[in-house]
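Table S4 entry, tRNA uridine(34) hydroxylase.
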Amino acid sequence: MKPYRVILYYCYSPIADTESYRDEHHVFCVQNNLLGRIIIAPEGLNGTVSGTPEDCDAYMHYVRSDARFAHVQFKIEEHDTVAFQKLHVRVKDEIVNSDLGVDPLVRTGKHLEPSDFKKLINDPDVVLVDMRSDYEHEVGKFKGAITFDMHNLRELPDHVHEIEHLKDKKIVTYCTGGIKCEKASAYLLDQGFKDVYQLHGGIIRYGLEEGGENFDGKCYVFDNRITVEVNSLNPTIISTCFICNESCDRMINCANAECNTHVPVCHKCGDEMEGACSPECKAHPGKRIYDGTGYYVSQSNHYHPLQGLKSQKKNIKKLKLAERPASV
């Protein structure tokens, strides 16, 4: 057992007062030593948090103790260190940016459990469709899966024509943790696809529960691990170093903050290029200091990390003043 955990989850369930819940949620994370990225939107929650097993257990209990999120499914991974350097709890319009105009609570693709997915992946009548971004499937994907040259889910409508001829096939969508597929599969149904499924819990859950068979490469994740092993049964490497073209499944963000592209770069080239993806980026004045990982902490420009605590302290102060007996 490793000393820390990383827990990944999402939950589509309406949240009326996102600002207040954001503050409450953030306070709980601070008080329980948790770091990570959490998105709160009118449609629900989406997050990855990291901490000790005890703190992660407390967090999962906290989330599930709210009736709105009692059914949330957590993907739990062990890790040697805390997988984040900061805590960000943000309010957004959607828990995954899509602009697809669909509501997974109304209609979505049929959930396929990892054990059932494993039985289907070699079926010639099944078509696997990767709903992740191009840089994600560049470093890892299921054997034979269809991928799109898209940078985010908002671009899906521009690529549906690529699978238009497969409308009568059994379509199985997949993504990292399942959240994108809730909307992507719903969108495919709206576009006339007849038989649409989604891998419930995504690549991560499939790896944890079924060993990740037939997932080639590594899975891109949105924390300082950048990529994780998924396949313990028949692993392979499918990506090559962006600079030297040697086999490589190590992803970095370019050290040039204005570029920040996600690409596979081997350790040797990473050191020689100081974390940059090109000579131009290496010479750029906006190049960040490369520490050998290729991971850089994102900055929040609209929510101070202590805002929730400040709001709570202000409310407690007001309450105490209101309760103070009048002087005689």
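Confidence is low (pLDDT under 50) at residues 316-322.
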